[in-house]
Amino acid sequence: MIAACVARDLEGGGKVRSVRDFIGGFHGFTGTAKRSAVLENSGLFRATLGVFFDGDRVDHAGIAQLLLAMQSHSRLVKPAALGLIGEENFRSVFAEDNADQDRFRYCPPRLRAARKSSSVCPKMRCKSSRRSGTPSSVCSPGALAGS
Fold first, then answer.
1. Is residue 79 part of a domain?
2. Domain containing 113: what range?
3. Are the C-beta atoms of 11 and 61 separated by less than 8 Å?
4. What 3-state class would DSSP assign to 58?
5. Which of 9, 97, 139, 143 has its CA 20 to 30 A from that of 24?
6. What pLDDT is attached to residue 65?
7. How far is Cα 50 from Cα 7, in angstroms, rounded to an integer?
8. Could you tell me the pTM of the whole model?
């Protein structure tokens, strides 16, 4: 998400937003007190989101530290506040951003649960399973057929 924000900020030759502004976009962080606490815990006062990127390198540890600081100063989200989920809703959201609908893949919750509880690909949809004729023990997102 941070990389997408940096890319969007730079698209028109703009300025990369501050970590403070990024945090302010999350529910529960609109007030300055919580943002200041997160910035103090993470050591990112006056930093921009660009601080997490150096060429092709990503500061995963710094991003994880920011996430932990945000989590420690937030409350759990009520399920109703998460909004609609499901294939139709995700398709419409991605269509608004001009995503390639032919490459869109949706994994319904029951299928995700089956993948977590089983050590095999439940529908033999990954490339390695289709080649060998047997389900693979691990299906990575890049291994899905048609990807």
1. no
2. 84-143
3. no
4. strand
5. 97
6. 95
7. 10
8. 0.58
Does residue 58 sit in the same domain as residue 23? Answer: yes
How is residue 42 written in tokens? 């993470």
User: How many C-alpha atoms does 112 have within 13 Å on its Cβ side?
Assistant: 7
Spatial contact of 125 and 145, defined as CB atoms under 8 Å apart: yes
The whole-angstrom separation of Cα 40 and Cα 73 is 12
What is the average pLDDT across 27-31?
A: 91
End position of a domain, from candidates 42, 72, 102? 72
User: What token pair was written down for 93?
Assistant: 């959201």
Type of residue at 66: L
Task: Decide which of 72, 99, 125 is a domain's last residue.
Answer: 72
- Tens digits of residue pLDDT in 115-126: 555 444 444 445
The answer to whether residues 54 and 113 belong to one domain is no
Is 68 in the same domain as 88? no
User: Looking up tokens 């989590």, which residue turns up?
Assistant: 71
Instruction: Write the Ramachandran bin of 60: left for phi over 0, alpha for psi from -120 to 50, otherwise beta.
Output: alpha
